[in-house]
Amino acid sequence: xxxxxxxxxxxxxxxxxxxxxxxxxxxxxxxxxxxxxxxxxxxxxxxxxxxxxxxxxxxxxxxxxxxxxxxxxxxxxxxxxxxxxxxxxxxxxxxxxxxxxxxxxxxxxxxxxxxxxxxxxxxxxxxxxxxxxxxxxxxxxxxxxxxxxxxxxxxxxxx
Length: 159
Hints:
The chain is α/β, with parallel strands linked by helices. 38% of the residues lie in helices and 21% in strands. It has helices at 10-39, 48-72, 128-133; strands spanning 6-7, 74-75, 93-98, 101-108, 122-124, 141-144, 150-158. The strands form 2 sheets. The chain has a 5-stranded mixed sheet. The longest helix is centred in the N-terminal third of the chain and has 30 residues, at 10-39. It is elongated. The two termini are 36 Å apart.
């Protein structure tokens, strides 16, 4: 079964590659060293250090596999034919009105959403707001199909 194609920006690709290198070159060797040290302490049945080191190694391995899967199945928005034509594209920062409030988000690819960024949250192109904004232009009012639907009016956008 083929994996789903994942749309990511160049910026997202570079972040994932940097995280991958850190995991492979720094974190995994450190975790393996701690695992070996904990293993050398004797009885593994009651060795909390060994359990913690084994769990950490498994977490790192899992994240490495996840990143490999993303990068192996990743395409750019241009390759996907998404960033064509007028309006908002993946990679754009969008300013809009929600009621009386001015808000700003950056629309990113499938893996880059981070709503916790206080300055300018990033939203995935697959999220309700990301999906709704794509292709629309300044001055347009867009309906966001969220659990509680709402409308926003696009004020501006830029790369």
